Amino acid sequence: MEKLIIVGGSKLEGQITVSGSKNAILPIMAATLLCEGEAVIHEVPRLKDVMVMIQVLRFLGAKVKLEGSNLVINSASIQPQKINEVLMRKLRASNLVIGSLLARFGEAQVAYPGGCAIGSRPMDLHIKGFQKMGAVVSEKYGYIEAKADKLVGTDIHLDFPSVGATENLMMAAALSSGTTILRNVAREPEIVDLQNFLNLMGGKVAGAGLDMIRITGVPSLSSAEHEVIPDRIETGTHMIAAAVSNGRVKINNVIPEHVGPITAKLREAGIVVNEGSDYVEVFAKQRPGPIDIKTLPYPGFPTDMQAQMMVLMAVANGTGIVSESIFENRYKHVDELRRLGAKIKLEGKVSVVNGVPRLNGALVEATDLRAGAALIIAGLIADDITVIEQVHYLDRGYENIEQKYSQLGARIVRVNNGVHS
Ligand code: UD1
């Protein structure tokens, strides 16, 4: 079993480059199923989640090549095969193939993606949307089965701005007849990237980034070439790592506007953040001041940064409050941070973090992807040695994380059963 071993206490200094966005590439890969030609995508991060999505596309009959960070997908001869639970459970985002398959073939049958460590993640908003477009959807024996002779454009108001439901419905509507208006949609930058990709394939989508998206269906979609946006959550993770290590780091390949909510909170805590056209530079001269955060849909503070920001709050000069409003059970990292000496009280969806001057190294476990990121940041600044187990979670969303931090001066290695790997 692979572990990360970190000797804490190094200031992070230098430059680091952010990889392509995980949450942008996954829906774009699902959208390539709509394309009758070849899709070429650049800046693709080599992540476990991307590899699983490749398996899903290949299972459906797509020809997929990943060379370096370039992905070529040909979905000309795919078939809407039933996707079993072994594949579906490996990746929640695999549910995004439903919209594309339904739009192109009038049918999709996939195993329920299942729950996950951060709380139940239902599909009701996706399903209600497909039904409004004329699909008949049944859920039995652990499978979601959707059928429609032809999806018909309509007006859909989401109860909550779900990222996945917005994306799935955009893809379903792309080949429907007529126009679909999606209201109260997610406004995340990844939704805009999906819109751009759909339009490059010949789609007619407008409004992404605002709270209403209009999609006029077209008869078919064809070849496209696209470069995926940089990962704003990876960027935010490095920003916090730089800040708490009292270092100075220039983070390249960034769209500063996408990390606006993180920049605002860091500045509130007294951290200096300089923005350039495609980079941010972070440096800290003193212990962070106390802040409160509440996770919200974009452009609010991202739930995917809650665990990492909690580390900054854990060493802040005062007390702060975290309110998690997106997921019901996204506090698994709290127990692990307590092992490192953090003083955190948890009550339902709210936690109170009393900053301490120093954390201490310990044996901890990454309980999910972002919890793992938080533990790396904590390990980088803790006294002595921190060992992080279950690092496979980190590989789902961070490319070469230990190499990137080593370049900045961190002392971090990956070992496999005690052997350096
Ligand atoms: C996406 C991101 C994930 C991020 C999350 C919220 C990807 C691949 N993943 O996940 O990293 O943490 O957005 O920013 O892009 N919900 C329902 N019914 C539904 C759908 C969602 O109740 O049909 C609820 C969920 O249970 C959750 C909330 O809505 O509590 C947000 O979920 P959603 O925005 O759909 O997240 P994902 O698309 O799964």
Describe it.
This protein is α+β, with helices and mostly antiparallel strands and 421 residues long. 31% of the residues lie in helices and 26% in strands. The chain contains 14 helices and 24 strands. The strands form six sheets. Strands 21-22-1-23-24 form a five-stranded mixed beta sheet, with helices on one face. Strands 2-14-16-15 form a four-stranded mixed beta sheet. α1 packs parallel to α2 (48-59), α6 (163-174) runs parallel beside α7 and α8 packs parallel to α10 (306-314). The chain is globular and about 65 Å long. The model has no long low-confidence stretch (mean pLDDT 95). Bound molecules: uridine-diphosphate-N-acetylglucosamine. The site of uridine-diphosphate-N-acetylglucosamine (UD1) has 21 residues, from α1, α5 and α6.
